Amino acid sequence: xxxxxxxxxxxxxxxxxxxxxxxxxxxxxxxxxxxxxxxxxxxxxxxxxxxxxxxxxxxxxxxxxxxxxxxxxxxxxxxxxxxxxxxxxxxxxxxxxxxxxxxxxxxxxxxxxxxxxxxxxxxxxxxxxxxxxxxxxxxxxxxxxx
Length: 146
Description:
Aminopeptidase, globular, alpha+beta, 5 strands
């Protein structure tokens, strides 16, 4: 059975492992200060939020998200990071996390939840095509070397 809830201090090591797996999937390694900053933000629960999926008490998936204003609607929720341990994929943890984020956002008056994924992420896209609508938008970026 999969349960979803907030992260606690006891989850830090398992969360770091999952977050590292997420970043490795996208070909990046985060500096320790960015990992620490993310954890601090999640702990505060003001700007960034995190939920974890558990199987038999073990943290097996994570979702990171935040709300922001919109010029065309009420606030929206951006699901920035979603990752599940490879050993539990296909067993409902990702779906449970998405549903929990949607419920969290709905309770706060958001009108939609949205996210991005790489077009090559076919495993995730199979799930996403079941739970959401692909609106056909592409993402463009301008890197700002700060």
